[in-house]
């Protein structure tokens, strides 16, 4: 699960049923506690409606013959897109996205617009019935001015919205494609087996099946993206099968696209994957490649250096957020604290996070903490904070730039030259942005 996903804990079914009465008749007690029958399509629909209504103020109508989107999984993808956008857009910027195959629920635009008040969507589909429900769902939730539902059934292009108006710029495309290439493949899928012989946990045929399966679908998006390039900053898609990932990565590599990221969404027994690629130079931080799966290490993108990450940042807010994120990632050990390699000719450096705390009680607490581990590498402590009160610890070097307060501390035994080149690199960046 994405760390910001509100469904990182088991649902409180009784509490949900109390607050959303239509769910009541589907909740029952087992020896492990209250639950619902996940094989019942009706129960799943009531649960999706309850979560959307109670947690996001979204009111949804779903036809019985179309996919019922599990909210935690859909939220995972939206949160990942939020991370991607944050790397190149400041808070409050107008952000435009395309949801390819929005379905009857229009779940991605609805969730994303509730989370982000300045996001706008073009939501496409080819299925008449789904388009009709998507329209209704957007209207019922007062989002008609931010989500434009478009019928693309007459087009052979998946990225028709880019083709029709080459001047229109987008921050991202997202897509949950039909996964399977045939009804046989669908019947044999792990998902269908999980549902049991009589359970109808799948959607309409157009939602589940496409010629050539998801690899073909996403490959077509990629081929079209070669033409549109920077008209959209990030092209992304979810994938239902792990085996599809290497095929898409091979395609990217064949075309020398090395600016990509992959991630895994885990929700209970279900795993999904997502891939993002860009023709731009903005790099995503390593922490966004959230895959611990050893089977996928061979297709992971090369690591993003801190230099690459900050190279194209154009606002102090983004620079600050990026540096904070790097520190947070290192502290949470979600990335190895090594930012190696650099295409600027600057040697590899190590960044070690140390929270800046200048209150007396925090200093006392820090004194009781174990000393920083000794590293044989070049070593740098980087701290940054906005408008901090009080003074920095003695022996450190500080830079104040606008609202951004950057503090660098050189550690004895590390390479002073590397330290200085990094500091001047960041300072140059800060100065040019003021
Ligand atoms: C798996 S469903 C996803 C629905 C919804 N986005 C969700 O995540 O629950 C795939 C959707 O893609 C649509 N679709 C298939 N081919 C398409 C195309 N060429 N352009 C746009 N949508 C397409 C299908 O009609 C279906 O609604």
Automatic annotation (TrEMBL):
InterPro entries with a match to the protein in the record: METTL16/PsiM, METTL16/RlmF, SAM-dependent_MTases_sf
Presence of keyword Methyltransferase: yes
PANTHER family xref list: RNA N6-ADENOSINE-METHYLTRANSFERASE METTL16, SAM-DEPENDENT METHYLTRANSFERASE
Keywords of this entry: Methyltransferase, S-adenosyl-L-methionine, Transferase
Methyltransferase among keywords: yes
Positions that bind S-adenosyl-L-methionine: 74, 101, 125, 176
Similarity-based family: Belongs to the methyltransferase superfamily. METTL16/RlmF family.
A single GO BP: rRNA base methylation
Organism: Paxillus rubicundulus Ve08.2h10
GO CC terms: nucleus
Lineage of producing organism: Eukaryota, Fungi, Dikarya, Basidiomycota, Agaricomycotina
Protein name per the record: Unplaced genomic scaffold scaffold_804, whole genome shotgun sequence
GO MF annotations in UniProt: methyltransferase activity
């Amino acid at each position: 699960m994405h760390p910001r996903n509100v469904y990182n804990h088991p649902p409180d079914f009784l509490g949900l049923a109390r607050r959303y009465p239509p769910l009541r008749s589907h909740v029952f007690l087992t020896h492990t506690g209250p639950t619902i029958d996940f094989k019942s399509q009706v129960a799943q629909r009531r649960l999706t409606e309850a979560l959307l209504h109670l947690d996001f103020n979204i009111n949804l109508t779903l036809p019985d013959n179309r996919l019922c989107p599990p909210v935690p999984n859909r939220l995972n993808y939206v949160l990942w897109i939020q991370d991607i956008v944050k790397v190149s857009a400041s808070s409050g910027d107008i952000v435009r996205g395309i949801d390819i195959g929005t379905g009857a629920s229009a779940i991605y635009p609805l969730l994303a617009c509730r989370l982000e008040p300045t996001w706008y969507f073009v939501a496409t589909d080819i299925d008449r019935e789904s388009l009709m429900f998507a329209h209704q769902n957007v209207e019922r939730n007062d989002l008609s001015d931010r989500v434009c539902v478009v019928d693309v059934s007459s087009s052979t292009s998946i990225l028709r919205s880019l083709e029709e108006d080459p001047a229109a710029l987008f921050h991202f495309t997202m897509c949950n494609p039909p996964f399977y290439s045939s009804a046989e493949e669908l019947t044999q899928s792990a998902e269908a087996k999980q549902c049991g012989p009589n359970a109808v946990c799948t959607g309409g045929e157009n939602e589940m099946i496409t010629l050539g399966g998801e690899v073909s679908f996403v490959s077509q998006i990629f081929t079209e993206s070669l033409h549109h390039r920077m008209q959209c900053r990030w092209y992304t898609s979810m994938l239902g099968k792990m085996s599809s990932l290497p095929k898409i990565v091979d395609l990217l590599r064949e075309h020398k696209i090395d600016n990509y990221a992959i991630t895994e969404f885990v929700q209970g027994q279900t795993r999904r994957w997502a891939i993002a690629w860009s023709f731009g130079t903005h790099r995503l931080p390593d922490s966004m490649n959230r895959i611990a799966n050893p089977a996928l290490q061979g297709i992971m993108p090369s690591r993003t250096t801190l230099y690459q990450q900050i190279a194209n940042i154009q606002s102090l807010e983004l620079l600050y957020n990026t540096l904070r994120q790097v520190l947070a990632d290192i502290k949470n050990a979600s990335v190895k604290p090594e930012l190696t390699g650099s295409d600027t000719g600057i040697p590899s450096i190590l960044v070690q996070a140390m929270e800046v705390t200048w209150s007396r009680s925090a200093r006392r607490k820090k004194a009781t903490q174990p000393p920083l581990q000794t590293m044989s590498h070049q070593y740098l402590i980087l701290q940054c904070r906005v408008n901090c009160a009080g003074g920095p610890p003695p022996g450190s070097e500080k830079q104040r730039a606008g609202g951004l307060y950057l503090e660098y501390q050189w550690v004895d035994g590390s390479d002073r030259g590397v330290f200085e080149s990094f500091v001047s690199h960041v300072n140059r960046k800060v100065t040019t942005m003021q």
